[in-house]
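hey can u check if this looks right to u? its 128 residues, i copy pasted from the old doc so theres a chance i mangled smth
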Amino acid sequence: MSNKTVTVHTDAAPQAIGPYSQATVNAGWVFVSGQIPLDPTTGDLVAGDFAQQAKRVLDNIDAVLKAAGCDRTSVVKATAYLTDLTRFAEFNEIYAAFFGEHRPARAVVGVAALPRGAQVEVEAVAVR
């Protein structure tokens, strides 16, 4: 395995809104940057309720993982940031449907705010 860091880019996920990559790969590890519910085509925040935003975030994670040469079953750790922890149970349902029987390690953190007024952000670490 190479120790060279490679950046990941795909048009199927939103472009980075700051000085970072959608993901990096090093020594077989894939580090997916935090994804917020931006539409990859327009770059706009997905209008709608929490569920629509959470699903878009996970779809964005999926697209970045695919571009990195792996998929959601490769995820070993995820961290979710919610602006409203009363949505924890709702997030769990959406998250469980996304991962199916796969159960990566996870943390959920309550935060005061997220970029662009998003209600949810998720970052992930995967192995390929």
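The chain has a mean pLDDT of 96.
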